[in-house]
Automatic annotation (TrEMBL):
Domain of life assignment: Bacteria
Key word tRNA-binding present: no
NCBIfam families per the UniProt record, alphabetical: PRK08243.1
Family matches, as SUPFAM superfamilies: FAD-linked reductases, C-terminal domain, FAD/NAD(P)-binding domain
Molecular function, one GO term: FAD binding
InterPro entries per UniProt: FAD-bd, FAD/NAD-bd_sf, RIFMO-like
Residue span(s) of domain FAD-binding: 2-343
Pfam families recorded: FAD_binding_3 (PF01494)
Protein name, as recorded: p-hydroxybenzoate 3-monooxygenase
Record keywords, A-Z: FAD, Flavoprotein, Monooxygenase, Oxidoreductase
Amino acid sequence: MRTQVGIIGAGPAGLLLSRLLTLQGVDNVVLENRSREYVEARIRAGILEQHTVDTLTDAGLGDRLHREGLEHHGIYLQYPGTRHKLDFPELCGRTVWVYGQTEVTKDLIKAQLDGGPPLLFEVSDVTPEDVDSDSPRIRFTDAEGNPQVLECDVIAGTDGFHGPSRAVVQQGSPGRTWERTYPYAWLGVLADAAPATDELIYAWHPEGFGLYSMRSPTVSRLYLQVDPSEKIEDWSDDRIWDNLAKRFALDGWELTTGTITEKSVLPMRSFVSAPMRRGRLFLAGDAAHIVPPTGAKGLNLAVADVTLLASALVRLLTEGRTDLVDSYSDRALARVWRCTHFSWSMTSMLHRSGDDFDAELQLSQLRRVCSSEPAARELAENYTGLPLDV
Ligand code: RFL
Ligand code: PHB
């Protein structure tokens, strides 16, 4: 088998890269080690920045997003006694959209299987080789158990945090990684309950952070800060609802409850690996960086990476010009660090560390953001998404 771009991983990064390349006449093959059902059911991100919505729409993937997605004009910041709305259009002229990553993935897979380039599920032993040469290849075993070789001009490592590509980049280049593990985790639930709020609520509370998000007019997505050692078995539905009611409590407001259909505990970390390239192997998305979810940035960063990467690869493969592939890692990392800082600052402002000095600093910062327009604008610009080149 031969293709121009071999893409490892069918998450949002790999699938969107495939779509953008195909639209510009560059052929490619996507290799995914999980099944289609598994990939489509993985519950993750919920917030799309303006530039993500624009990119998906321009790539012909906006129909269902615009029909079923919910455009949001702000968020609420809450601390005891106060729920303050940050109005994004007023502060920075942009909005965000609530549209689950599951739905983005389904739309991308449907478009791909409907006449797009090959997308092979349930492959195994995926190994990028000879990435320092002009003709790298990917060895893998197909779903039927047959060994295969995919000869490529370029390989894209969009295989998430646990995929094989990052290790290959790190073995060959004098790069480095940075990591921070937070002493917090999120207990996330999906519930058949109509959202009791028009915008997402980010709530500081003496007992820990709470986030009220949603997926549709009938489905809520809720998170509670818990200790990373917490076991989900110890959290009955009643215990979860009691804690949510306490953390979002506000005079005159009531939580709506319903059937919890999914619950899990999610660790939180920041991670950056540089450079995002070795020879003809390019990393994008979670394969190169992880942010804690408090800033809603992970999926959006993956989309920003592949938008830059797609134009760089088109230039390389259709015009033979190397300028954009040579600047890809630096340009992508500038945005990665901006989003890493924003995600860290949101996490630091909102999670209880147990230390009373920290708590006073957090409350002081929350009061500042809720009373100063420049402070609110800084948050709004970062949350709704900065330009591709920061
Ligand atoms: P993915 O989605 O992990 O996809 C990688 C794909 O590669 C496959 N793979 C392999 N394929 C072949 N061979 C191998 N050896 C392979 N190893 C792995 C995997 O099966 C998978 O299909 O990475 P990608 O595409 O870079 O996308 C990144 C996003 O998924 C991630 O950043 C976001 O979900 C993060 N995130 C959020 N991002 C946002 O922008 N907004 C949010 O509101 C938001 N909320 C969240 C989040 C992540 C969360 N969790 C679960 C960590 C909320 C949560 C709770
Ligand atoms: C979500 O809806 O899953 C979500 C929303 C905002 C975040 C993180 C997750 O900051």
